[in-house]
Amino acid sequence: MSDKAISLPDEILPGAVHMFDTHAHYDDEKLAPVIHTLLPEIFASGVDYILNAGTNPDTSRHSLELAERYPGIYAACGMHPGDSGRYGSPDDYLPLLEEQLKHPKCVALGEIGLDYHYDFTDRETQRIWLYAQLELAEKTGKPVIMHNRDAHGDCMEAARRYPNVTGVFHSFSGSRETAAELVEMGWYISFSGVVTFKNAGRVREVARSIPDDRILIETDCPYMTPVPFRGRTNHSGYMQYTAAELASLRGMELDEFCALTCENGKRLYRIN
Ligand SMILES: [Zn+2]
What we know:
Layout: E1 19-24, H1 35-43, E2 47-53, H2 57-69, E3 73-77, H3 90-101, E4 106-115, H4 123-140, E5 144-149, H5 152-161, E6 167-169, H6 176-185, E7 188-191, H7 201-209, E8 215-217, H8 239-249, H9 254-268
Helix pairs in contact: 2-3, 3-4, 8-9
C-alpha cells in the first residue's frame, strides 16, 4: 500500500472534535513507517487522545515509547490471546508486565482476552494467560482492555469471576443482553468501524442500547476501517465516520457524542 493511502481524509466532518481513540495499534508494521508524519496530522484534526494497546512484551514497550513521545498518547500493556502462545508461561512476563504497568502513562492492562476465531494459540493457554492477567489487574487496580472474538461465554465467565476488575470490552460484537450485564458489572463498551458496515445491524442495535456514560469509540487500527474507507489501512483520522454513525444512531449531534465519549475514555483510563 502506498503512503498516499495512509493519509488523512480530505474532509473533516463538522463536529468531529476532541475525540478519544480508545484502542489503536500504531506500532503495527502497516502504520509504523508513517506514524511520525501521520500522528501530528491526526492530533491537529480533532483527535485529542489515543490509547495504544500492547499485545505482547515488545508491543507493550513500543506503546510506552509512543506515549513518552506524544502527549496525547497513552499506553496499555499486556498479552493478547493471539500472541500468548509465543511467549512462554505467564510467569516469564508477569514480573516485567507489573513493572510496565507502573509507567506514569500506562493507564490500562491489555489487551487481554480470548480469541476462538483465529485460534492462533490453543484455548487452554489463552485462558491461563487471561486469568493470570486478571489476577494482576485485581492486584494493581488497573482497568483492563478485553478482546473477545467468538468466545463470549468464556469471556463473560472470566468477567464474572473477577467482580473487582472492570475495564472495556473493545470492538464489541456480543449481544444486547451481554452488553447490559457488563454495564451492570461496571464495564465500558467500545465500538469500532464495524458499526458502519452494511451487515452490522446487530452491532448497531447494541450500540443504541449502551448508557451514555459507558460507551466508547475506537479504531482498532490498522484494522476495522469504517465505511466509506473500508479496505484502506485504518488510523484515527477515519474515526470521525464511526463517531458520526454512532451519534446518528443515538440521536445526538456529532460534537456532543465526541465530547461524551472523550469524557468516558478519560474517566475509564483515569486521565485528568
Ligand atoms: Zn486491538
